[in-house]
């Protein structure tokens, strides 16, 4: 018996799960049901479930009580979902609306909320992204930093910068405006990592940093500016102030504490990225926790859910019943484990919010209450004749 991952070439999205699975993980390239059946599958894993041939395989697997799981390989992006000629505006398919597989593994709580609202209630499992587990070792809390060295800004394009001419034109204008700004401001050092499909049409010359790995480039940067992309997760995990840059006038499912939507915002955003406001740092951490769960544990948790689904399916088959999977197999991921709000970190220069520890606050309160009582006692001793006496002395001084 085997667990089958059906993917043309993205084995790396599944391989981290293998060491936690009870059954061998086998990769197949084509949605051929007879070929799949020959490997005696106990579960089928997919990165997409919206093509006709894959949906046929899923339906056949479900008829035989074999669990089917859609594993998301990134976050939802508005243009990809609604402004992509491949499947938007009522074309042949509408991805995730609804999910055809029995379950969908979501990167984080925010994605699960959206997919549930799209008619997938009971199918969403919050697992994180297994391929990002290695970034747990690079996890750095985002805190304000100061340095006199020349600041490096990593500039990244998405894998697909645009899906039609207007979107591509917006993309070209965005990168041209960024280049113009950095040409005028030599105190910053831009590091470019632009995909070939857009880099070839940009109207300026730049050096593309393709030699170092993406993780190395992020690590070396002081801040990151990127189009909407999964790299946003990676940058935030590594504690880099991260701005999403997108000139399209459309919503986005995943937000950032810093945004660039027009050329007039570039200068102020770059300065803010490099002079990190504690409030914005906190907000970035909050957004990351909402968008990406189980950093470092995703592969293990995903495998546990897979094996539990296999057990449900096998038990139902023994009893001659149709399998019904629990609405939430792994419940911990559906809790919003955002970082704790810390007034001293957010407002370090406000003396009234300097103390956060409960014991310290209690001590300060007791001292303040004692001081108030002392002052009340002093005032109580000062009767009306006392104040008239003070006024008489003041009057004498003025006369003399």
Secondary-structure blueprint:
Blueprint: E1 2-6, E2 25-28, H1 33-38, E3 41-46, H2 52-63, E4 68-71, H3 78-82, E5 103-106, H4 109-120, E6 124-126, E7 151-156, H5 165-184, E8 188-193, H6 196-199, H7 214-220, E9 223-226, H8 231-237, E10 242-245, E11 258-260, H9 266-274, H10 278-291, H11 298-318, H12 343-346, H13 358-381, H14 384-399
Parallel strand pairs: 1-2, 1-3, 3-4, 4-5, 5-6, 7-8, 7-9, 9-10, 10-11
Characteristics:
five-stranded parallel beta sheet, 14 helices, about 40% helix, extended
Fold-level CATH name of the largest domain: Rossmann fold
Could you give the order of the helices and strands?
A: EEHEHEHEHEEHEHHEHEEHHHHHH
Largest sheet: 6 strands, parallel
Distance between the termini: 109 Å
The low-confidence runs, each spanning 5 or more residues with pLDDT under 50, are none
| Fraction in beta strands | 5-15%
Task: Describe the model.
The protein is of the alpha/beta class. The protein folds into three domains: 172 residues, Glycogen Phosphorylase B (Rossmann fold, 3-Layer(aba) Sandwich), CATH 3.40.50.2000; 152 residues, CDP-glycerol glycerophosphotransferase, C-terminal domain (Rossmann fold), CATH 3.40.50; 43 residues. The protein has 14 helices and eleven strands. It has a six-stranded parallel beta sheet with strand order 2-1-3-4-5-6, sandwiched between helices. Helix 5 links the parallel strand 7 and strand 8. The relative contact order is 0.12.
Describe what is shown at a glance.
This protein is of the alpha/beta class and 400 residues long.
